[in-house]
Design brief:
alpha+beta; 10 helices; globular
């Protein structure tokens, strides 16, 4: 490591890598150091991503998520094509389950017509022709035939190779121990390094880094654990597309859906259960007792005050606990599925969900806050993978 870099990026997930890429594209003479606390890339959210390139129709007009989805998905798809990253144009079906879904279904259909090329409205006959195993009781669905799934780990590796070729430096296996914003200095592995600009893209730890820079502690991380079940290879059920329910727009998550990977595997999920630790992928692994206590305390406040319809969300997620409950939820999409059709899976991710401590509300859009020559990229949750290249342009060129 040198004593000075024009740009330092904290966090080697998809957002940090995309920002490094954009910096180099904008000014190839700029020196860049990317700091990743793990010993390799892709250990957390970005490497555990579903790889679905989202259309953005779930997000309201004017939201940052909606703004970046269309451009971001196109750029990411082009990157995959140009760099031989595994990808598959599989298509997505958004399925209403009951009459209560009609109002939001119509909103999604309008957005799809306005934002997505080749979006279609399918009737029951068309649905049964392309997906004979799914629930067609409502006799309609939104079809997005151009939805693509990519290999997220391969994207990360290709970005790493590209950045290395452009002389971007990587420092693995160390977290920043202290910062001095007044002098633009960080301490990393007992070495003081000065920077021209710094980007906080640290995912599950953005609130901690945010606090390190002396900012008001107005956000706290509320990690949400998403687990999946896998379709058994012996099952007679076959699904040709991604199948999503019409989400309850009063709840902050999309609900259990299907995922077909580029390798031809089919998963069901994710659940959306609050976790007791930022990296709690298994049982009580990496759980800090003080942090777990604070998470439980905040969860209790959300439940009692029912902020963001949290009580409804929590009650619905409890139903998905265990294999039997999970199968019950999947049957909303695939009525014929049985418990023996799915297996437990080690596919698990953690959503880096920020909670606003003042309002006790989940932050639902991306947040970018600037502090002199420091940029904090906050709440970069789904669909951040889809949006990353487009987001990076806005963040770097601002």
């Amino acid at each position: 490591m040198k004593d000075y870099y024009d740009n330092i990026i904290i966090g080697g997930g998809i957002v940090g890598l995309s920002i490094a890429r954009e910096i180099i594209k904008t000014d190839h003479n700029s020196s860049v150091l990317l700091v990743e606390k793990e010993n390799m890339l892709g250990m957390h959210a970005s490497g555990r991503n579903s790889g679905v390139l989202h259309s953005g129709i779930y997000y309201p007009d004017g939201s940052t998520k909606a703004k970046h989805c269309q451009n971001g998905s196109t750029e990411m798809y082009d990157f995959c094509i140009n760099n031989n990253v595994e990808n598959k144009k599989i298509g997505k079906i958004i399925l209403p389950i009951n009459e209560k879904d009609d109002e939001y279904f119509n909103i999604l259909h309008t957005r799809a017509k306005n934002r997505v090329n080749n979006a279609e409205l399918l009737d029951k006959k068309q649905l049964n022709e392309i997906e004979p195993n799914i629930n067609s009781r409502m006799g309609k669905a939104i079809y997005l035939p151009n939805t693509v799934v990519v290999n997220s780990i391969s994207v990360i590796r290709k970005l790493y190779d590209f950045l290395l070729s452009k002389k971007v430096e990587f420092e693995f296996g160390g977290a920043i121990s202290s910062v001095d914003p007044a002098r633009s200095i960080i301490t990393l592995k007992q070495k003081k390094i000065q920077y021209g600009k710094i980007y906080n893209c640290s995912g599950q730890h953005t609130d901690k880094v945010y606090k390190q820079f002396g900012l008001e502690e107005k956000y706290v991380m509320m990690p949400i654990r998403g687990s999946y079940y896998k379709l058994n290879t012996k099952s007679n059920i076959r699904l040709n597309h991604l199948i999503y329910p019409v989400p309850d727009h009063k709840i902050p998550f999309l609900g259990i859906h299907t995922l077909n990977t580029v390798n031809g595997e089919t998963y069901f999920g994710p659940s959306a259960m609050p976790a007791l630790g930022r990296e709690q992928y298994k049982y009580l692994e990496t759980v800090d007792s003080i942090e777990a206590f604070n998470i439980v305390r905040n969860l209790s406040k959300l439940y009692i005050k029912d902020i963001n319809n949290f009580r409804k969300y929590a009650n619905s997620e409890i139903k998905n606990f265990g294999k039997r409950g999970f199968v019950s939820s999947i049957r909303n999409l695939v009525p014929s599925i049985k418990q023996h059709d799915i297996d437990y899976s080690d596919k698990v991710g953690i959503r880096a969900q920020l909670l606003n401590k003042k309002t006790l509300e989940f932050e639902m859009d991306f947040l970018v806050e600037r502090q002199d020559n420091v940029v904090h990229v906050l709440n970069a949750v789904s669909p951040a993978f889809t949006c990353s290249f487009s987001m990076a342009k806005t963040i770097v060129c601002h």
